[in-house]
């Protein structure tokens, strides 16, 4: 069963598990299950994704329950009126805060402007030898993408030489292998923990929070991060 974070007659939001595709995609390949189908079967109603999350990214995923609401939400996302906040664990210690303004090339070989703001939340140094170093450093950051390019956060953090832990394509494979062999970690440490927008019908400000998954918590514990400060659940009544 998918965890439902919010539901009314126009919208529904879930806490998407890591590894679940939102829908069928040429670029992502085939899968045995898709969030759009699982949610439709769970509630017995068609749903329409208002935005996307990568397969390996967990967290807040918003759907509409009708096409008119979908058009309104599409406009909000396109006009950058929706604030998306992510928690991620990176290799090394970043700056305390930074805006990454670095163009990305999309799947059609088109250059696109891409902007990400992040601020560092916590740092960690553990007794884990890596290369010539006897310890390894990591940090927990909150990232807020101003644009919504494919794999934007993964590519931007690679660009500043602080890749996301567990990211294969745009990460550090030596670190990923180290964590797999030492801690049996197989997931990517990227979680969409908050979505803020105005309700498309009532115009009420909606803030949706998604708690991190068990694997993110486990890695956070290894690094002595206090994740409870940033993962409070949403407080909305759900229809029975």
UniProtKB/TrEMBL annotation:
Residues 10-159 form the Pseudouridine synthase RsuA/RluA-like domain. The keyword tRNA processing applies. This is tRNA pseudouridine synthase C. GO terms for molecular function: RNA binding; tRNA pseudouridine(65) synthase activity. It comes from the Bacteria. InterPro entries: PsdUridine_synth_cat_dom_sf, PsdUridine_synth_RluA-like_CS, PsdUridine_synth_RsuA/RluA, RluA_PseudoU_synthase. It catalyses: uridine(65) in tRNA = pseudouridine(65) in tRNA. The keyword Lipoprotein does not apply. It holds the Pfam family PseudoU_synth_2. Keywords: Isomerase, tRNA processing. The lineage of its organism: Bacteria, Pseudomonadati, Bacteroidota, Flavobacteriia, Flavobacteriales. GO terms for biological process: enzyme-directed rRNA pseudouridine synthesis; tRNA processing. Responsible for synthesis of pseudouridine from uracil-65 in transfer RNAs. It comes from Chryseobacterium populi. Its EC number is 5.4.99.26.
